[in-house]
Amino acid sequence: MSEPAGQTVNDAIRAAAVRLEATSDTARLDAELLAAHLLGVTRSEMLLRHMRDPAPPGLAALVARRLEHEPVAYITGRQEFYGLPFIVSPAVLIPRGDSEVLVEAALAARPDARRVLDCGTGSGALLLAVLAYLREAGGVGIDCSEGALAIARRNAEALGLAPQAEWRLADWHAPGWTDGLGGPFDLILANPPYVEADAALDPSVRDHEPAGALFAGPEGLDDYRVLVPQLPGLLAPGGVALVEIGHLQAEAVGAIAAAAGLEWSLHRDLAGRARALELKIPLGKAGPLA
Question: Strand 185-190 relative to strand 235-244: parallel, antiparallel, unpaired?
Fold first, then answer.
């Protein structure tokens, strides 16, 4: 299907939004983002200056992809996170606004941090958002996917943060994964897989985002059970770890942390849902690397 001759941007967006209503709860927004992508401008700039311009060719093809539940971020190759533009692909999870609470909590907890570790870095969004504000800090992002690390490197270069960031292929399930990371760390960030294996997910997530970054066993706790007990050995004195959780997992992950000798407190997202645990070694105790 192609765009009718003589359509304006406004006409094309209206028609696209009608088509997308059967697939998306944000049909109008999706149509606007796809049109702005084709025009090579921001959505705000398009809405202000280009709505009466001729419709861009190719919008119908992008709408057809969205009708198959492909996420808009994968179609455009871009997603904003913490005010920064990130490159994304199906090799990485799409950064979500709910995860911004980890960045805010990390910056509040250790504004003086000099060494930062990001476990399961994906696109690099968490690490790079923190490093953008901690310009004297250096960070290491690890992932078990070479494809994800390639995206993270591209984002570091695009954001001018490459001198502050290192990227390592590492899997916290494997012995010796911490060798050569350059710890201990003042801040540790982690967004591990935490979705239950049989969870009902939207097709845009289930069929398009990387399963290895989503699913973590029948309770969604398998990766916490492996990673969290290793955090005390990676934290510098006074260090803090921020770990993203599912909204019903606070007590379960908190119990794993407590069993590992860590104190924990909860951070909620803007919708009031449990979103991250802040983990610390209790005052007077020291991690193995201290």
Answer: parallel
Give the type of residue at 83.
G
Q: What angle do CA 151, 155, 160 make, to 5 degrees?
A: 150
What strands lie across the sheet with 165-169, from one edge to the other? Answer: 165-169, 138-143, 115-119, 185-190, 235-244, 274-280, 263-268
Alpha helical stretches, state H, 42-196: 43-49, 59-67, 72-76, 100-109, 125-133, 146-158
Other CB atoms within a 10 A radius of the CB of residue 10 amount to 16
Residues 6+ apart with CB under 8 A from 176: none
Return the CATH number of 92-280, one of 3.40.50.2300, 3.40.50.150, 2.30.30.140, 3.40.1550.10: 3.40.50.150
What is the pTM (predicted TM-score) of this model?
Answer: 0.91
Work out the mean pLDDT of the chain and round it to a whole number.
Answer: 94
| CA–CA separation, 180 and 182 (whole Å) | 5
Q: How far apart are CA 205 and CA 71, in angstroms?
A: 8
- The pLDDT of residue 1 is above 80: no
Spatial distance between the Cα atoms of 213 and 59, rounded to a whole number of angstroms: 30
SS3 214: coil
